[in-house]
Design brief:
seven-stranded parallel β-sheet; 27 strands; 1 helix; about 0% helix; mainly beta
């Protein structure tokens, strides 16, 4: 499946739930290779999986965001074993697993996993364009909030520039008994905390 926003699913101002099944091999040219959530709520639980999805652009003035799931002023809940894995944001890519924009909320709990996602950059872009690409392998927020708790796991994700596990700018990341491990990046392999951001860790 291919679309400009939400390669497989676009959910504007609705409630969308997955308790099983797989969104796979979908592509978006702008945001949300697997799913695009706008002002609504997307809840993944049980055996639900989003995998092998892509956001990619060839024009360096555009930014592909959220290869797995893009959340625009809405809410993404990943619960009880749900997985977002092996998704790729390329060509100025940001947020390969999950991207939460301003006002977006991403909650992850109950053994949910984000693994093997890659936020890459194109080496033929200018230096400035490359600096803004390859950010947030597992998750990215600009002006939103990310809450990881109760066994949530972000592992084996990669960003070419900043934030292999998580990248936050103008937002918040709260961790309660959660794990970020084995992620890689040029800067901030686990978490990159940019301007006007707050990281809080408990347990």
């Amino acid at each position: 499946c291919k679309a400009s926003q939400g390669g497989a699913v676009r959910s504007p101002a609705n409630t969308f739930s997955m308790t099983g099944g797989t969104i796979t091999d979908s592509e978006a040219y702008q945001q949300g290779g697997g799913a695009f959530v706008e002002t609504g709520t997307f809840t993944m639980s049980g055996t639900a999986v989003v995998e092998n999805c892509i956001v990619a652009v060839s024009n360096p003035s555009n930014t592909p965001q959220g290869a797995g799931v893009f959340v625009n002023r809405g809410t993404l809940n990943m619960l009880s074993g749900a997985k977002i894995r092996n998704n790729t944001a390329v060509g100025n890519g940001q947020g390969a697993g999950v991207y939460a924009s301003s006002g977006g909320t991403f909650n992850m709990a109950g053994g949910a996993e984000i693994t093997g996602n890659i936020a890459d950059k194109k080496t033929d872009f200018t230096t400035d364009q490359q600096t803004r690409s390859g950010i947030g392998g597992g998750a990215y927020t600009d002006g939103g909030s990310i809450i990881l708790q109760d066994g949530a796991l972000i592992r084996d994700d990669h960003a070419s520039n900043n934030g292999g596990g998580v990248y936050i700018v103008n937002g918040t990341l709260d961790m309660y008994n959660a794990t970020i491990e084995n992620c890689t990046s040029g800067n901030g392999a686990g978490v990159f905390v940019a301007k006007n951001s707050f990281l809080t860790m408990y347990g």
